[in-house]
Amino acid sequence: MIIMIAAVAENNALGKNNELVWHLPNDFKRFKELTSHHHIIMGRKTFESFPKPLPNRTHIVITRQEDYKPEGCIIVDTIEKAIAICPNNEDSFIIGGGEIYALGMPLTDIIEITRVHHTFDADTFFPEIKEEDWLLVESESNFKDEKHLYDYTYETYIKR
Question: Which Gene Ontology terms cover its molecular function (predicted)?
């Protein structure tokens, strides 16, 4: 299965200047639990936003830069090639950024969203989840606390 995973604000904001604009430790834990030991597909800018490659994951980076060759990554130039590399019998994850999410939306089976209940000034946005294409099958509310400045909800969508 191809699973798209993202943390998205109420206004579909993903981030600004190649960084998240919120900090939700529980969301980071959930991301790690879901994506560890799987293939993760991302754009070059998303990959470069990490201080180092994420452990226990196979990184597939999509870029048009022909000379881009970071160590330990598989480099491709289309989302279709990225998905073709992923094992058919395992979950693989599209992890961003905005352009890659838009390209991957028609190729995705499941969307795992952390909906951050706030709006943010951003320069990168998640594509609209259209009700006619996607069915919300699970929703788990979480409330702000000493480690989380915002309420947030985990949402799982499946393709109709």
Answer: dihydrofolate reductase activity; NADP+ binding
Q: Please compute the mean of the pLDDT values over residues 11-30 and round it to a whole number.
A: 95
- The CATH number of domain 2-159 is 3.20.20.70: no
Q: What is the 3-state secondary structure (H, E, C) of the chain?
A: CEEEEEEEECCCEEEECCECCCCCHHHHHHHHHHHCCCEEEEEHHHHHCCCCCCCCCEEEEECCCCCCCCCCEEEECCHHHHHHHCCCCCCEEEEECHHHHHHHHHHCCEEEEEEECCCCCCCEECCCCCCCCEEEEEEEEECCCCCCCCCEEEEEEEEC
> pTM of the entire structure?
0.96
pLDDT at 75: 97
Residue 2: band (very low, low, confident or very high) from pLDDT cuts 50, 70, 90: very high
Write down the domain spans for the chain.
Answer: 2-159
